[in-house]
Amino acid sequence: MQGRLRSRELTFEEKLRALHWPFILLVPMLAVIGYAVLYSAAGGSHEPWAWRHAVRFTAGFVVMLTIALVDVRFWFRWAYVIFVATLVLLVAVDIVGSFSKGAQRWLNLGLFQLQPSELAKVTLVMALARFLHAARLEDIVRPVYLLVPLAMIGLPAVLVLLQPDLGTAVMLIAVGGGMLFLGGVRWWKFVLAGALVAASLPLLWANLRDYQRQRVLTFLDPERDPLGAGYHIIQSKIALGSGGLFGRGFLNGSQSQLDFLPEKQTDFAFTLLAEESGFVGAALVLILYFVVVFLAFFVGMRAQSHFGRLLALGVGLNFSLYVFINVAMITGLIPVVGVPLPLISYGGTAMMTTLMSFGLLLSVDVHRQVRIPRYPSEL
Amino acid sequence: MYQETDRHRLFTRRALVLGAGQLGMFGLLLGRLWQLQVTEGEKYALLAEDNRVNTKLIVPARGRILDRLGRPLARNVPAYRVRVVRERTPDLRRTLRSLAELVPVSPRRLQEVEEQARSLRPFVPVPIRDDLTWQEVARIAVHAPELPGILLDQALLRDYPHGPILAHVLGYVGPVNDRELANDRDPLLALPEFRIGKKGIEKSYDKKLRGRAGLSKVEVNALGREIRELDRDEGQPGEDLQISVDLELQRFCFDRLAGEKAAAAAVVDVHTGAVLASVSIPSFDPKAFTNGLSAATWRQLRDDPLFPLVDKCIRGQYPPGSTFKMVTALAALEKGVIDPGHEVFCSGVFTLGNARFHCWKTGGHGRLALVQAIAQSCDVYFYDVALRVGVDAIASMARRFGLGERLGVDLPGERPGLVPTRAWKRERLGEPWQKGETVVTGIGQGFVLTTPLQLAVMTARLCNGLRMVRPWFVRSPEAAAEEWPRIELPEEGLRAVLRGMYEVVNGARGTARRAKLPIEGIALAGKTGTSQVKRITRAERARGDHKRKDKPWRERDHALFVCYAPYAAPRYAVAVVVEHGGSGSKAAAPPARDIMTRTLEINPSGADLIAARSRTARG
Question: Which residue in B587, B496, B579, B543 sits closest to B262, CA to CA?
């Protein structure tokens, strides 16, 4: 039994050959689109965003490949440690933030700024994948057993909420919930959790920061304050709508180019893209995103280890949530929560964590034949 | 192994559910995009257009105000402005300091400019000075390379080339206030650089003068920065407005009275009602108001006890004194209580019950009839006549001559004056009318109040064939074609009254013999008035205090004179009021004579004064 589980180590050449090359080619395509959007957002200039976007992507791409070539069992072994390290960083951010009075999401590491909440989305997936990998079906059905993964989700979510960053907190909970769903937690438990959340909404409302309440209220009725909080959504919808079927043409989006659009280089990058390239361009990009998610699903389905399957689907889920929340937000389907569009929006940490998660996905795929025991001690 | 297979099967099931969910989410997003971009695309495209195009109003040039011969009284002059744009200078403070070395700018102004520039958006030009001379413009232009962000440009400023001479007639323009903004829907008013008429002609003809706003469609970004102009409509500049005033005459009147502390004069054409000159002393410089007045200057003007801001011609209300006697006489003549031959003996005092009413002439005038009563301005005669006819008949006559009511002159703020009646006193003061009050009303004292313009119009109506002219500065052609209604009065009585006025100036005993015109063959007719501002007590009269020359200014009588000329073919009427000037014959008649002389020399109406002269010679 033990002998069969322990598989042969792959050579570097075998790993290279096993890499999912279509996926690896797809990722830079999205980054190139991002480059074009940021070039347009700057009014037709490589500065200040597009150039750095390219540099960051290149760095992240190297990191992705590096992670991909590292044995998946390494990530399995260190999953908890990495997760705990992330929690420590989150606490550090909260402490620094309490000193600087105000929303604090970054740790200044001198060379670059680290946003631990972004990192948490990836490391939470790793930690939950490892936990659920070890869990047996009869364990999963025991409610008490679920307290551990719930704490794994709850801890970073609370820390992120303290920053305060509602969008990321929601994403962490959604990704964590998705992982538990994949892990086999019973349907009715999700229904119960949903009911509990609904019941606690008034309490949550009472504890929301003023700007968060504003966002929810504005979402419910953007016209309430057209020049204030509702401005983002209204302007974004106008920009999207004026793009029409084929768009206004590259660098010709009047809404975006004339600065009506706020944060067009970050959260509202997709609006600019949709204004200038129309429904056709926007749909094409959405389909590219979906292909990424589909490939992650595909990788998960052909992985031999439960850890690998969970990790791959977790990465896919995380990525599709990014896209969904961002696009739903700019089209006015959900409140503005401040989630960037992966690989297109300008922003260092999101790009880095996305590529790191892709690295893990590729690692799963490279080592899809590798069997993983329930516990690292058995490796 | 069984365990593992079970778990795998469950996982696959759940993964498919999750994948289907994700597919659904992407489908939802695509649907939403289709809805926004294709189904509702047109609606949002319209909104986008709205967003992008900003309509900017262009202030039209304000119409000029011209005198009757087309000489400009109010115009727009290019003012050279210097402004600074914060985003175009690397160091705002240093740029401002360098500018202050070239042209004088007070340190306080520099401070203000800097604060303003930092509070506004960086591309908004902030004005520093708008009254640069050519030399200063040249100096700045030469140093332009060392003054980044400094803009030189031109703006139109309202200019009143004759300054204080016409200040009350023209009024002035100033920044729009909230009340004006609320009452007027013209979008121009919302523009900060727009100036609205605040007083005088500038106010009453503001709509005509201001013109119609032009429109400039400008593409802007969300910050309001202009990208480029898409379309431009120049609008309609304001109309030039010609007013009845003769600049030369106006200047003469102003200069003639400039030596007085406070005075007013009006010259009207007796047939048309055109106001040829209207002067109020002291005056102010209307230019100071164009860009808003400094608080100190404003306070000084407002609190000046001589009220330089008030147009005394239409807002100064004075007891008319003896200039009112024609009205009293005509009221009595109309009622038939006297005829021109009616005689009264003046002993210098008129007694009514216990009350004694004095004539201005201490010894009395002796026996006299109407013509001489007017010529010598006998008070006792008119005490007697007033008592005979009663106050209500006097009031009715006064109203027909334009007293006690607004004449509807086209200047804002005209005051009605006051002509008392029994009913008025009962209503206003809750007291019955006293006979003694009728007595003093008869000589234009007591409650009676008139404005200088009313006095000029009264005189015009007396001499123009009793036509009820109304004064105006601007008249529409329709109004010009209209006939004035007539006052119906016995011919003989009126002739006696006018003869009395002729005797005032030309008679052997007239009170204004010094007002004879220096022009051969043209006679002036008029009436002096000396109105008391303070009741003379018995003790004062006994001491002779009321005739002392060294009375405090405020207690001295107002001096009035009304007149018309030529006597034989009347064309112009003049009224002069010198506040606390003392006697009408000494203080008011001489300037009135000079003003009339000048009026006849200029002869704005172009009347045939030669014919008038020959008629005078015959009569």
Answer: B579
Is the distance from CB of A184 to CB of B14 less than 8 angstroms? Answer: yes
Residue A77 forms contact with B (CB below 8 Å): no
| pLDDT per position as a tens digit, A123-174 | 999 999 999 998 888 888 788 888 999 999 999 998 888 776 777 888 899 9
Please provide residue B527's backbone torsions phi and psi, each rounded to the nearest 5 degrees: -155, 130
Q: Which residues in chain B are contacts of A310 at CB distance < 8 A?
A: 11
Q: Are B193 and B59 in contact, with CB atoms under 8 Å apart? A: yes
Are residues B222 and A258, on separate chains, in Cβ contact within 8 Å? yes
What is the distance between the alpha carbons of residues A175 and A315, in angstroms, rounded to a whole number? 9
CA–CA–CA angle B497, B502, B505 (5° rounding): 135
Instruction: Classify domain B247-299+313-618 by CATH number.
Output: 3.40.710.10
| Structure token digits, residue A14 | 């075998």
Question: Domain residue spans in chain B?
Answer: 56-242, 247-299+313-618
pLDDT value at position B269?
96
| CB-based contact B604:B246 (threshold 8 Å) | yes
pLDDT at A7 over 60: no
SS3 label, residue B292: coil
- Secondary structure of B329-393 in HEC code, one letter for each residue: HHHHHHHCCCCCCCCEEECCEEEECCEEEECCCCCCCEEECHHHHHHCCCHHHHHHHHHHHCHHH
Across the A:B interface, residue pairs with CB atoms under 8 Å apart total 139
Is B583 a catalytic site residue? no
C-alpha A147 chain-centroid distance: 24
Neighbours of A94 (CB within 10 A): 18
In percent, the amount of chain B with pLDDT more than 70 equals: 92
Gyration radius of chain A over CA positions = 21
The structure tokens 């983002």 sit at A232
Q: How far apart are CA A26 and CA A100, in angstroms?
A: 41
Closest C-alpha to A127, from A377, A322, A360, A295: A360
Residues of A in contact with B17 (CB under 8 A): 181
Q: Strand B241-242 to strand B65-66: parallel, antiparallel, or no bridges (unpaired)?
A: parallel
Q: Domain-by-domain residue ranges, chain A?
A: 8-378
How far is residue B345's CA from residue A13's CA, in Å, rounded to a whole number? 144
Contact B44 A136 (CB under 8 A): no
Cβ B499 vs Cβ B226: under 8 Å: no
| Predicted pLDDT at A221 | 58
- Is B56-242 a domain of CATH 3.90.1310.10? yes
Residues 6+ apart with CB under 8 A from B126: B83, B84, B85, B86, B113, B116, B117, B120
pLDDT over threshold 80, residue A11: yes
The shortest C-alpha distance from A93 to chain B (Å) reads: 32
DSSP-derived secondary structure letter, A258: T
Whole-number Å distance between alpha carbons of B196 and B160:
15
What phi and psi values does residue A213 have, to the nearest 5 degrees? -60, -40
How deeply is B2 buried, as exposed, middle or buried, from its count of CB atoms within 10 A (0-12, 13-18, 19+)? Answer: exposed
Token pair in block for residue A335: 């409140």
Q: To which H or E segment does residue B558 belong? A: strand B558-565
Bridge partners, B467 (sequence order):
B486
Q: Is the pLDDT confidence value at B618 over 50?
A: no
- Same-fold call for B56-242 versus B247-299+313-618: no
Task: Choose the weakest-confidence range: A179-183, A232-236, B209-213.
Answer: A232-236
| One-letter amino acid of B367 | R
SS3 category, B174:
strand
User: Which pair of tokens denotes residue B54?
Assistant: 């900003």
Residues B136 and B45: their CA atoms lie apart, in Å, by 50
Helix (H) or strand (E) run with residue B195 in it: strand B195-197
